[in-house]
Amino acid sequence: MRRLTRLAVHLYPAAWRARYGDEFLAMLEQEDADLPILLNVIAHGVKARLRLERDSYGGNTMVGSAQPQRLALLGLIVMLPTSILVAAAILKYIVGVDGPFDALEPALTPIVTHPLGETVFVLAPYVALFLAMVPVTRLGLGWRTGRLSATMEVNAPALNVVVALASGLLAGFMVLYWVAENI
Amino acid sequence: MLRDIAEFSDQRLGPGTLYGAIERLEDDGLIEPLPAEDRRIPYRLTEAGTKYLRRRVAELDQLASVARRRVAT
Questions:
Q1: Are B16 and A44 in contact (CB under 8 A)?
Q2: Cβ atoms within 10 Å, residue A133
Q3: Taking CB atoms and an 8 Å limit, are B40 and A27 in contact across chains?
Q4: Cβ pair B14:A41 closer than 8 A
Q5: Which of A72, A83, A154, B10 is the least crowded, having the fewest Cβ atoms under 10 Å away?
Q6: How do the domains of chain A map onto residue ranges?
Q7: CB count in 10 Å sphere of residue B23
Q8: What is the pLDDT of residues A39-74, one digit of tens each?
Q9: Do B41 and A27 lie within an 8 Å CB cutoff?
């Protein structure tokens, strides 16, 4: 247990360990190593790391392992195939322009009819929404004087907003299409 | 420090909790570290920390006296 507790100290950010690490370890060595102490060190190590990462992005992010714009860009790439296919389908079945869909269909049909391909295709907008919004969203949940308090704060760059809106529209369209086809 | 806190408050504080508090108090300028004793670092109240603590103790005193009066009635 003592070894695990020492390992758990590595959950704290390097800057924190440089500042308090040695005295913290010295104090741990004087205490009885037990599960509550291990859990306490783990919880506060994770908290310190999240706080550091949040602060490094202006104090407004829930997670911050990468630049928010980079994750939004990744989201855009993830949902691009779905976007292209849906746009082509709209052009064909709503606008009446067959060309793009007919050109794509032979290549995409084997992919979207495969269970894995279909799953990726359907989930892509939600993954993109997640990638665009989670890094720029801060959630707060608390219980004070007998009342539940929940807050959500978003501080998003333009790219994240665009990807979030596009993925939301795409997901919404796909849900409506599914409802129209199945109900 | 953990044992000292446990003795006077009857609360067992976790080491992570304690150092979370130390970090905040130091960042707020309410405590400051003294020269290291072996690997241990003692902390003391700064002037601002002493003022803050006096104010908080006075507030708690007032709260406790109101509570005592209400419990007595």
A1: yes
A2: 22
A3: yes
A4: yes
A5: B10
A6: 2-56, 68-182
A7: 16
A8: 888 888 888 877 776 665 544 444 444 578 888 888
A9: no
